[in-house]
Specification:
With 140 residues, the chain is mainly β. It is built from 1 helix and 12 strands. The protein is 6% helix and 45% strand. Strands 1-9-6-11-4 form a 5-stranded antiparallel sheet, with no helix packed on it. The chain has a 5-stranded antiparallel sheet with strand order 8-7-10-5-12.
């Protein structure tokens, strides 16, 4: 799961500021169909607590500090998003929990699909059943 943390291309300097960007199917392996962001979340709040059957995402934190724990059903890895130059690729089939670690943190998400409630797995035991049955084998 180490290859999921990405460095976002950044240009600029301290005199004029910085611009960071990523591009569909170049820097990330999918077309972006939806962008959303979460903010004003109290410190140490846990969000996420789900996996997706098909949707993939890129997460980044332009301000603050957010810990993301990814779980593929066999192993867990923790990632810290604390710079606008870092991004995390969340592939389909990964259970993910996000923890707000700094006041005012903002989590931005670019998603491969439009919102579809049927794509969510919100029950952890159901997620483990999908993993055990090999639903995502050879895809992640």
């Amino acid at each position: 799961m180490d290859n999921l943390l990405l460095n976002i291309t950044t240009h600029g300097n301290d005199e004029v500021g910085y611009l960071s960007f990523f591009e569909s199917n170049k820097d990330i392996p999918f077309d972006i169909k939806r962008i959303y962001y979460t903010y004003l979340v109290p410190i140490d709040t846990k969000r996420g607590m789900h996996a997706h059957k098909e949707l993939q995402q890129i997460l980044w934190c332009p301000y603050g500090k957010i810990e993301v724990v990814l779980n593929n059903g066999n192993e867990k890895s923790s990632y810290i998003l604390d710079s606008p130059e870092k991004a995390l690729l969340v592939l389909k089939g990964y259970w993910h929990d996000m923890y707000w670690r700094k006041e005012g943190s903002v989590l931005c998400v670019a998603a491969s699909e439009h919102y579809d409630e049927a794509d969510y797995i919100r029950d952890y035991d159901e997620f483990l059943k999908y993993v055990k049955e090999g639903y995502w084998d050879d895809e992640n």
